[in-house]
């Protein structure tokens, strides 16, 4: 599969203050590597392929140049899906249990996830946000959170174009548009009608600006039994 992981939002705008307060920066050794999102005071959701050493999470800021390590940075316990496949990216979902409860405030909030299995119609207007690279070929992620609107793509079309895709995914953005994600923001949420319904997983390798294939997200509602079990136990 011709994939590219760790994926930014292209043809985007800088997110307005007091919006997207659920967004997390998943970091290694203090540097942004992936996106994520806060679903309750104790857990952040991200992609399983974002697993790395020395992982921490930053919450409560749109600008990574303004991070108070004492109040915004959290150590985490990693709860990676037990059936995640690093070759095919099947079951590309991971929960991160925070070392302490997040203090919800004017700069930090949660986002709901589906409460049951859902069907998202093609051409549903959604949005994706992140801090990845600002242009193809660059290796530098951005400090300020950015966001772009994307529309969902019929799964049959997505399967036809990719030929092989994992089960339990949503496709949105890329493919005949100039909007989508690129390197730097795997793990961020696809938000439709106020709910985080997908997790940034992969797109077409080395082709962010004018991708010929759809962007692919893990569909959260397909993993609710596993997610809810962890949330209830408050542990992996």
UniProtKB/TrEMBL annotation:
It is found in: Secreted, Extracellular space. Its EC number is 3.4.21.4. One of its GO terms (molecular function) is serine-type endopeptidase activity. The keyword Transport does not apply. Transmembrane segments: none annotated. Keywords: Disulfide bond, Zymogen. InterPro entries: Peptidase_S1_PA (IPR009003), Peptidase_S1_PA_chymotrypsin (IPR043504), Peptidase_S1A (IPR001314), Trypsin_dom (IPR001254), TRYPSIN_HIS (IPR018114). Pfam families: Trypsin. GO terms for cellular component: extracellular region. GO terms for biological process: proteolysis. It catalyses: Preferential cleavage: Arg-|-Xaa, Lys-|-Xaa. It comes from the Eukaryota. Residues 22-232 form the Peptidase S1 domain. Its main location: secreted. This is trypsin.
């Amino acid at each position: 599969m011709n994939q590219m992981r760790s994926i930014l939002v292209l043809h985007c705008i800088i997110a307005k203050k007091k919006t997207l307060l659920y967004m997390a920066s998943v970091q290694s050794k203090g540097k942004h590597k992936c996106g994520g999102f806060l679903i309750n005071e104790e857990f952040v959701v991200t992609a399983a392929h974002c697993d790395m050493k020395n992982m921490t999470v930053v919450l409560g800021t749109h600008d990574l140049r303004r991070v108070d390590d004492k109040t915004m940075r959290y150590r985490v316990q990693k709860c990676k899906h037990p059936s995640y496949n690093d070759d095919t990216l099947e079951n590309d979902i991971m929960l991160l249990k925070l070392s302490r409860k997040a203090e919800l405030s004017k700069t930090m909030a949660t986002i709901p996830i589906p409460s049951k299995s859902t069907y998202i119609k093609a051409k549903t207007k959604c949005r994706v946000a992140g801090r990845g690279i600002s242009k193809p070929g660059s290796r530098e992620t951005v400090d300020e959170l950015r966001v772009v609107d994307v529309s969902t793509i019929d799964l049959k079309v997505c399967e036809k174009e990719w030929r092989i895709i994992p089960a339990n995914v949503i496709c949105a953005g890329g493919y005949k548009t100039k909007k989508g994600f690129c390197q730097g923001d795997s793990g961020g949420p696809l938000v439709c009608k106020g709910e985080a319904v997908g997790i940034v997983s992969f797109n077409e390798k080395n082709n962010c600006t004018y991708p010929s294939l759809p962007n692919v997200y893990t569909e959260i509602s397909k993993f609710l039994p596993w997610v809810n079990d962890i949330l209830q136990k408050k542990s992996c």
